[in-house]
Description:
The structure holds 2 protein chains of 2 kinds. By secondary structure, chain A is α/β, with parallel strands linked by helices. Chain A is built from 27 helices and 13 strands. Chain A folds into 3 domains: 8-157, Aminohydrolase, N-terminal nucleophile (Ntn) domain (Glutamine Phosphoribosylpyrophosphate, subunit 1, domain 1), CATH 3.60.20; 162-504, Rossmann fold; 511-578, no CATH class. Chain A has helices spanning 19-28, 38-49, 100-103, 115-124, 174-195, 210-222, 242-252, 263-277, 286-298, 310-313, 318-331, 340-344, 350-353, 357-363, 379-386, 394-400, 405-412, 422-439, 441-449, 462-469, 473-476, 484-489, 496-499, 521-527, 529-535, 540-553, 558-578, and strands at 8-16, 59-67, 72-77, 86-90, 93-97, 138-139, 144-148, 153-157, 202-205, 228-233, 255-260, 303-305, 454-456. Chain A has a 5-stranded antiparallel sheet, covered by helices on one side. Chain A is globular. The model of chain A is unreliable at 581-594 (pLDDT under 50). Chain B has one domain. Helices cover 52% and strands 0% of the residues of chain B. In chain B, helix 1 (5-18) crosses helix 4. Chain B is globular, with a radius of gyration of 13 Å. The A-B interface holds A 349, 351-352, 354-356, 358-359, 362-363, 367, 383-384, 386-391, 539, 541-543, 545-546, 549, 556-560 and B 15-16, 18-21, 33-45, 60-61, 63-66, 68-69.
Amino acid sequence: MSGPDRSTWITFNGEIFNYVELRDELRRKGHSFRTGSDTEVILHLYEEEGEACLLRLNGDFAFAIWDERRQRLFIARDRIGVRPIYYAERPDGFYFASEMKALLEVPGIDAEPDPFAVDQIFTFWVCLPPRTPFRGISELPPGHFITLTPDRMEIRRYWQPAYPDAHSAREWSRPYEERLKEELRALFLDSVKLRLRSDVPYGAYLSGGLDSSLVGAAANRLVDSELRTFSVTFEDPEFDESSLQRKMAAALQARYEAVPVSTDEIGRLFPQVIDSIEQPVLRTGAVPLYRLAGHVRECGVKVVLTGEGADEVFAGYDLFKEAKVRRFVDRQPGSSRRPRLLSRLYPYLPRMQQQSAPFLRAFFSPGGQGAGDPLYSHMPRFRSTAGIKLFYGQETRETLKGYDALADLRDRLPAEFTRWHPLSQAQYLEMTYLLPGYILSSQGDRVAMAHGVESRYPFLDPRLIDFAAQIPPELKLRGLREKHILRESLKDLLPREIGDRPKQPYRAPEGECFVGPQQSDEVRDALSPNTIARGGFFDPGAVQQLVSKFALKGRLGQRDNMALVGVLSTQLWHRAFIGNRDGRTAVPSPITAS
Amino acid sequence: MPDDFDSSIRDFIAENFLFRADRNSIADDESLLESGLIDSTGVLELIAFLEQRYGITVADEEIIPDNLDSIGNIGNYLRLKRAPVRA
């Protein structure tokens, strides 16, 4: 689409939720509109405010504007990174796209794997942008924009989660907390309202947990028609949450549609899912969500509201509680009682309950740079994930010699990071890396968009994020009660059983989906010693032994699960994008900066 | 008394946690936790192996890194555990 005098042109993926308000404001300033679309609003706002327009947009977006007068290309991505954007700089031009597979069609952009990116995934679950698993393709990080002129390319950050300095925290008082609760409530309800603006049928995902229930309840209050809710269910009671989903749907008087997903189906769909998410993963959680989006689309629904983001914005994850307890334990190293608290954090992990206090302390010890490490909150997770690097082959070890993914991450932290409260530091790491790189991508946009379904995230409204960043940490994590202020401010929306329910992370069956009689030919081939040797990443003998262990024992522990899923997904990714590049023909035209 | 504790423990760890052929790459005093070889499930697998293989019962208070977090520690623990009790 072009601007009124054809001096600006835009290509846009996403949604601007406050476009109605922005359009009214621009009209008052003399702008006239040819369409009713949000795309046109971005163009006019850009003409009015230039780069500063980004902070006025409340939406999930990736767009590029060609500014003819300034001979400049302006490419931007939303604050949190709901919508993806990838680019490649080549001598013959600058290429960008919403998917990496589009860029791989360009002659000269070869599908070469980047072993450092794989090493980052095998440490953090995500690549650290701009790195992607493909050499030669970069990802524009969330909250950043590119300006490209014939002379230069510049990438700048326009937004980041901004927390107050720990020592400047405001003192608690009852009236202050009440004011915060009121404001939170108003912002959340308005966020849901904006995200219900849709000219296509919509529904809501219902996991059975607090966050999606709050979104569903708020949506139900705001519309007259019956809300359609969609949920994943599992055969195995360890993962299944259907009884709470049913209870919540009944409380909302909403229509409940369950999509059962079997281990067999996860095994069968996994290769397709890897094709959609375009990178290795360490968990299977994307597959049930891929299946769910497929069902939603078959029902004619194109937009879903969902609860992601609340755990990052309001401190819901176990990791936040874990870091708090670990600091408490570390203050009294001799105490034999304090480490017991660590097992209480994971009531849903039976093997954690059987550990002795000294082992609990060892599992959760910070390692790395100790208590002063900026990555303190995440070290047990990063360290246990890195255990799967034992499966690297000799060549991979040689290539990665001297590379320290943890040091790489430490180097990227903003200068003010160490001044923040420990909870804010942990929230920053989750919000900046795992949220966009995995939750909103592999488990979000990529698997939903594979079926043409758009996910909307009311907890990721920028007003709500900025507001929540200023809330004192002890009101988010009160004692060990996660998302305290969120629960308190919205408790009348939910049945008590759901409103008070402790966090239950979304989990799906893992390694057992890929072994035994249901193993598909595709998976068998990807894990065979010959294919592993051809891929060049892993030790074929080690992978064989791991597969045999699964075949013998069925369900195994976290490290073995992550290893099998990580190895298999890397193999499938390699086959889909690197070892199988023949026969792709479409070639997009380059955008040249000259 | 000579025993083959260390080598059979090494075999078990290599086959179930290291998986690779270079089983001698684990030093006797290397922390199995720090090196990413065992997680919370791994500890329980290791205890089940010791109980089954050596006919012992690992008491709750004995499940500590000092007894189980390296091949050397496990060997020492087994030697003490199996030593005849003197009156």
